[in-house]
Fold:
Amino acid sequence: IVLGITLKAITVLVSYLCTMEVTNQYKTIKRMDMIY
Structure:
């Protein structure tokens, strides 16, 4: 049971980090668009 909870927590954490990464890349791209 504990292993399942840990696995779910890791999955949520990974997806959260991926979302943050995509958001940061999107912001960077928007910033580049404003510069050019």
